[in-house]
What does this fold into?
Amino acid sequence: MKKFDVAIAGGGLIGGTIALELAQAGLRVGLFDRQEPGQEASWAGAGILSPAPESSAMISLVPLGKASMALYPEFVRMVEEISGQEVGYRPRGTLQAIFNGDAREELSTVIALHHGLGLKAEPLSAQDARVLEPSLSEELEVAVLRPEEASVDNRALTQAVLEAARRCGVQFFPASGAEATWRQGGRCVGLSLKNEKIEAQWTIIAAGCFSANIEGVATYAPVRPAKGQMAALRADDLKIERVLWSEKIYLVPRNDGRILAGATVEYTGFEKGLTAGGIEKILAAAIELSPGLASARMEETWAGLRPDSPDHLPILGPTDADGLLIATGHFRSGILLTPITARLVREWVTQQRVSVDWERFSPMRFQSASAKRVPA
Ligand SMILES: Cc1cc2nc3c(=O)[nH]c(=O)nc-3n(C[C@H](O)[C@H](O)[C@H](O)COP(=O)(O)OP(=O)(O)OC[C@H]3O[C@@H](n4cnc5c(N)ncnc54)[C@H](O)[C@@H]3O)c2cc1C
It folds into this structure.
């Protein structure tokens, strides 16, 4: 029987980075994926690194987002150094475009919200915004510059993290999906695969939107897939420096000149089909924000499945089964939240305490009050 200090189900960016961090702490780590690792949401995402809340429901996520943002430069440096691969980190800020009739009022609200949360945000006239980003529409009313935000090429980052993990001694098991957590009494002692049991002192579920399909996990991580359709464009005569963001769309420039446009949010189960309506919506909004994109070449379209939780917040931390941890439900912010997620899991596994309060994200929050018991 294979035996590890830590067995991780799911080799996306979250599981891969946890594996890397725990291997660096000296633990023997096995990374189990039902397919080749790194082919799901972590491949499909846009790679925007923004701790700004997209709605009032997400305000409680801001401190975790800020903590992760602060770890990013060192995380990128470490991953690039160990893997020998570049990850396309662009700490160049976000420009939020505001178009509607009540633009001035919205501008004050956005600025006040950001400042109240300790996030930098600077008001810009349409003219000043177009000096920074000449491709922006002339219909623009006002804009907000969020200078501390960034983006990363999440496909490159995921591959680099997996390579770094390999080089640090993590053992990979592709085509080895977990069917269930393996329990003995109140303890989780590893994973059950199709024809094999894996013994581990710590078991970590990081299987993205598929996590709830692993027997014994759904009560802690009742996640569901939220499909996002995306398009990649290329326009030789149009330059976008920062992430451009409007109510309807975001545009994310990559170092290789591609401009990513996205994304829909759809609850259509575990299918990744593209639709005419979805792609039409993305392209129309992209051209409205940056009209020069009308003549851009379409390079690629795709869709991926975000792991969404009932309250749209991540599901992180220990469960009432000793040795079992959950790290999923990162929804629209999993690329941003990767470094802090891996840091907190490593702290818990190695010291049984964490440096940032993660109680709000406990996997026990979906269980009835009487059923809750998290080991100290
Ligand atoms: C269109 C789109 C745009 C996005 N944009 C952004 C963005 O701009 N910024 C941001 O921060 N986030 C963004 N996200 C969200 C982000 O991509 C996700 O939150 C993050 O990638 C989740 O990572 P993960 O490792 O948990 O999941 P995944 O990357 O989905 O990995 C899960 C892994 O688990 C494996 N698996 C499944 N079942 C099993 C099993 N039974 N046993 C073992 N392994 C299993 C899968 O094969 C997969 O490799 C976006 C997502 C999408 C889809």
User: Anything to note?
Assistant: The chain is about 30% helix and 25% strand. The first strand starts at residue 2 and ends at 9.
